[in-house]
Amino acid sequence: MSKTPFQTVAIDLAERSYDIYIGSALIQQQALFDGLPKASSVLIVSNTTVAPLYAAQLRAALSARYAKVLTLELPDGEVHKNWQTLNLIFDALLQNGCDRKTLLVALGGGVVGDMTGYAAASFMRGVPFMQVPTTLLSQVDSSVGGKTGINHPLGKNMIGAFYQPLLVLCDLDTLKTLPERELSAGLAEVIKYGPIADLQFMDWLEQNMDRLLARDVDALAHAVKRSCEIKAWVVAQDEREGGLRAILNFGHTFGHAIEAGMGYGAWLHGEAVGCGMVMAAKLSERLGLVDADFVARLLALTVQAGLPVVGPVLNAEDNAGRYLELMRLDKKSDAGEIKFVLIDGPSKATVRGAPDALVRDVIDACCKV
Fold first, then answer.
1. I want to staple 254 with a disulfide (CB 3.0 to 4.6 A). Which of 124, 177, 210, 276 is the partner?
2. Is 240 an active-site residue?
3. What class has domain 6-177?
4. Residue 129 in contact with residue 166, Cβ under 8 Å?
């Protein structure tokens, strides 16, 4: 097969550095896998939705380099991002006699990527892995930066490890089969980069949202590349989220509360983040950090992407209290104080607390009653 052009974004982490490849028809290009380490076996971890679409292509490409290429199909959905599903990966590795050089390959969205990465970090105390993200959300966010893990009933992504992949391969052709709801959910993680880091990118998104929703490949390539560039810049400075990297969680404090409170899978992660960004922006406005016009602009862009902007009621008797209870379990919380990623002026983010009374007001204003 002839070589198809692609773009590259580098993640600069010294000996853990790696590249992100972005382009079309990348899964079939055997040459892209030439730099991967030698191993006696490869395990492709996917799910019941994605594997029938792309596993055969990926297996054929990897078989040119590896003698034994195995495939594991996990159940699909956020509700399965747990210990029981994670153990299916360990079962497959052990039952097939895999060793510490075995390469794991995550083929799927954020759930598959997070769990495969965590399995790679844990199996024999660490084996190599690579990411082949097949959703917009995973291409612009979860596959990049080395965050891996599973959910706990009391909190999202509370169990995991920082573990970097060897390579991230973003094949834009996989977005052709993405359901519309999943595409919109991915756009939430694209939109977030504008308010926290790049106002010009936010301008571009406003002008090109219709092209993205129509899956224009050039528009998608630009959105994925710019999102990865911003995340790469942040991760290179703060790999383990000691400070700056926390800004990438814009909208996630409210969003994770929505996911946990509704039950994982009721709202897609990106839908919860989209609504959470609007809530965080309104909290920023209440604190005097950003003006109402910017909040209205973000809300309009979120609506344009097809994302919800009105939060659900998690408790009929004390909805705000339930949100606060769940948000205190957020990883950014410090000694019981909830930390929010807020907009401190256009394209500038800050991480700080806020009075409970003010947060309650925002939740009451943003949620269905």
1. 276
2. no
3. alpha beta
4. yes
